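Inverse folding, one chain.
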């Protein structure tokens, strides 16, 4: 009986050691629940910092954060931006085709959650630096921001954007 208890304890320790590194090194993923808590600059900063983003080349008008920065912080795998004047923000996951092959696509999870938990409003246009893009927009319960959340795929990247009111 004592040998059984001893072996059982050893097995528990082995299992703990096998699974512990995964929980320690697992990176937090952005989720709809995270996005719904954003109401201002400070709550945006809390979410990006807690989700592993690093500060980029922010300006007096916009705050930029990214993941996987390359030289001089002009290229990243993921982006987050907050516009100070309007309170609008967006999150962009780059290269969805590649990310989906690795099964780590938080953009798809957010879109699925938005479609199942929120109410479709309309298609809205957003004009960026180089082109105008159509976004499906939704009104979500329990949101902290004033506006509608929209999503679209732009040049192979997944974008979740707040259309502020």
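Residues assigned per position:
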């Amino acid at each position: 009986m004592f040998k059984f208890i001893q072996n059982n304890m050893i097995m528990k320790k082995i299992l703990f050691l096998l699974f512990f590194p995964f929980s320690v090194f697992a990176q937090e993923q952005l989720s709809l629940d995270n996005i719904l808590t954003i109401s201002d600059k400070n709550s945006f900063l809390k979410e990006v910092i807690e989700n592993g983003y690093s500060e980029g080349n922010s300006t007096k008008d916009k705050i930029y954060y990214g993941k996987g920065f390359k030289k001089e912080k002009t290229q990243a795998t993921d982006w987050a931006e907050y516009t100070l004047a309007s309170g609008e923000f967006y999150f962009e996951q780059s290269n969805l085709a590649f990310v989906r092959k690795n099964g780590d696509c938080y953009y798809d999870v957010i879109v699925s959650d938005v479609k199942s938990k929120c109410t479709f409003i309309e298609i809205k246009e957003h004009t960026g630096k180089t082109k105008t893009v159509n976004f499906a927009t939704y009104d979500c319960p329990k949101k902290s921001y004033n506006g509608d959340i929209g999503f679209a795929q732009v040049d192979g990247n997944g974008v979740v954007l707040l259309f502020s009111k």
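The first strand starts at residue 54 and ends at 55. Confidence is low (pLDDT under 50) at residues 9-26.
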